[in-house]
Amino acid sequence: xxxxxxxxxxxxxxxxxxxxxxxxxxxxxxxxxxxxxxxxxxxxxxxxxxxxxxxxxxxxxxxxxxxxxxxxxxxxxxxxxxxxxxxxxxxxxxxxxxxxxxxxxxxxxxxxxxxxxxxxxxxxxxxxxxxxxxxxxxxxxxxxxxxxxxxxxxxxxxxxxxxxxxxxxxxxxxxxxxxxxxxxxxxxxxxxxxxxxxxxxxxxxxxxxxxxxxxxxxxxxxxxxxxxxxxxxxxxxxxxxxxxxxxxxxxxxxxxxxxxxxxxxxxxxxxxxxxxxxxxxxxxxxxx
Length: 288
Prior knowledge:
By secondary structure, this protein is an all-alpha fold. It has one domain (2-286). It has 11 helices and no strands. The protein has helices at residues 2-26, 31-51, 65-82, 86-90, 105-127, 131-141, 156-172, 177-194, 212-215, 236-241, 268-286. Helix 1 packs antiparallel against helix 2 (31-51). The protein is globular, with a radius of gyration of 19 Å.
């Protein structure tokens, strides 16, 4: 049973979960069905993390439960609220004729995923290079355990920058609202998979898709060791940029191996304020 779960957990989520979302939205079925798939995926993730954990201790709360729920609630609300602006923005898309509207719906979503992935990976990469952007991205790297629900633990400003750059070429091409909606759900499912504490295996697929097996290395401590594996959906960007890394023998399995070396606030409100305070203090020191 454990062996089967190890092998089929990823395809159930990646193909079954995302496939269901694409089918529901592509067929114009009630959007509540898509939310039901999402809720089922979260519940299944929690169950499987306890049945087949990568690191059993990461299933125990580190007084981070409420904080992570707030991050998920705020960032999910921002993402789905932004869809309300899409009809207005679509009217201003300069190259809307480029969108392959005659493609099957799943093909349009797949293309959107690949384009978005490149943009997000590029911003992610620069977030480790530009100090001001790193101050906001550091919120995501402050995790001291990895489990499905903290994939959306991001500073909302950093998520806005990342999303804006990632979706810019899609907007220019005139991405339809239903494709954007399916894309949003797929991103949430992928973050759930990427941070999963389930000891699932994907064989050679991990060299192409950015799953938890490779993403755990991105959270290595100190952060400089995690300047690898920036992709959200795929590892294509990392292979091109020379930032892909995988070594089964050195995969992090405890909280001391991931996170930030220095003390970082763990309360939600403190994490939101921390980047601004850091930038303000740096600017203040530069004047003296």
